[in-house]
Structure to design on (351 residues):
């Protein structure tokens, strides 16, 4: 299964010109600032906005090509859509919400309800089948929206900020559940997000959009290591470390210890911002940071007045320091360094 889309659209002040592809089993995250065109891309794919002078095909079937007079209505496209605020119908039961997409496609009521029940069972929502959406928590509402999108057996699943409506505590657990649910779907998945942690945790590939243009695409590791714009560097340049926390220390699968602050015991995802990494040379590096790891600089990227360093070692890290500090320390590829981070500068959430 393959999505192949070229979208050329003017909408108000937005001049959107992008080409993108997605493949079966792949999760692609669309990132970018407000107004960049991310949600408009999803709406074009779903048929809620025209593709302008572009062309959209799914599995080789053209669903939108204005120049050729081709336009497939949204309900006839093999697409499921999870909206940012979920858009559940408050006057319908949870079961009726999930069955809605099937009924809109002409599926008989009995069959639609049976298939809706199946998805509610899969997502542990069977007990809410006869309830109205008002009684649901944020995580439950998201799962209902996901069930409604998947019940139609789409080729392409679109998710617009699927975690944005959740508070920080709920977000971590729902992110974990969403990752498991998406893994069970073998189609193409395209997700808009503002959060680089969500992109790192969920996506196989990132596409960054700025001012209606794709400025970078690659795996999370590739984009993090080599950001091509200042925005990308600020957005996705984070180090993610997963391990088990006990007594204020996170231990990775390879045995690396990371001292953290204010985190409960258990499997944990730690976020280290590149600008929080302190770099020193020599055997002695005077710092109050409680974490220090040896490593070797394997790549250097200059970004204006900042320099991004890729460090390979016991804990691979991306660090960002000023150009002045880089020159003063006389650093370069192949140099051995100490990378230190204060425990209070490490953000944590349940994995």
């Amino acid at each position: 299964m393959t999505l192949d889309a070229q979208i050329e659209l003017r909408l108000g002040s937005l001049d959107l010109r992008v080409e993108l592809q997605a493949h079966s089993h792949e999760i692609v995250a669309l990132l970018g600032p407000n107004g960049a065109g991310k949600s408009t891309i999803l709406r074009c794919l779903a048929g809620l906005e025209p593709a302008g002078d572009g062309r959209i095909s799914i599995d080789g079937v053209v669903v939108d090509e204005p120049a050729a007079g081709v336009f497939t209505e949204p309900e006839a496209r093999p697409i499921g859509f999870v909206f940012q605020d979920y858009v559940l119908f408050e006057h319908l039961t949870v079961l009726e919400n999930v069955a809605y997409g099937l009924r809109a496609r002409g599926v008989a009521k009995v069959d639609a309800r049976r298939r809706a029940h199946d998805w509610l069972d899969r997502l542990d929502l069977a007990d809410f089948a006869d309830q109205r959406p008002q009684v649901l928590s944020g995580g439950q509402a998201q799962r209902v929206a996901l069930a409604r999108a998947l019940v139609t057996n789409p080729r392409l699943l679109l998710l617009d900020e699927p975690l944005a409506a959740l508070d920080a505590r709920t977000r971590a657990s729902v992110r974990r559940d969403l990752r498991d649910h998406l893994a069970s779907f073998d189609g193409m998945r395209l997700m808009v997000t503002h959060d680089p942690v969500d992109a790192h945790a969920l996506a196989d590939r990132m596409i960054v959009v700025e001012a209606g243009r794709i400025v970078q695409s690659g795996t999370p590791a590739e984009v993090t290591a080599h950001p091509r714009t200042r925005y990308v560097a600020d957005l996705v340049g984070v180090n993610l470390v997963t391990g088990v926390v006990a007594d204020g220390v996170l231990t990775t699968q390879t045995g690396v210890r990371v001292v953290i602050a204010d985190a409960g015991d258990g499997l944990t995802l730690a976020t280290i911002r590149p600008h929080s990494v302190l770099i020193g040379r020599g055997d002695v590096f005077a710092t109050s940071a409680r974490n220090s790891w040896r490593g070797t600089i394997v790549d250097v990227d200059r970004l204006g007045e900042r320099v991004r360093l890729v460090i390979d070692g016991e804990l691979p890290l991306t660090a960002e320091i000023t150009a002045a500090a880089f020159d003063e320390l006389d650093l370069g590829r192949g140099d051995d360094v100490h990378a230190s981070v204060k425990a209070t500068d490490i953000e944590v959430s349940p994995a």
Observations:
- The longest helix spans residues 168-183.
- The radius of gyration is 23 Å.
- The CA atoms of residues 89 and 97 lie 6 Å apart.
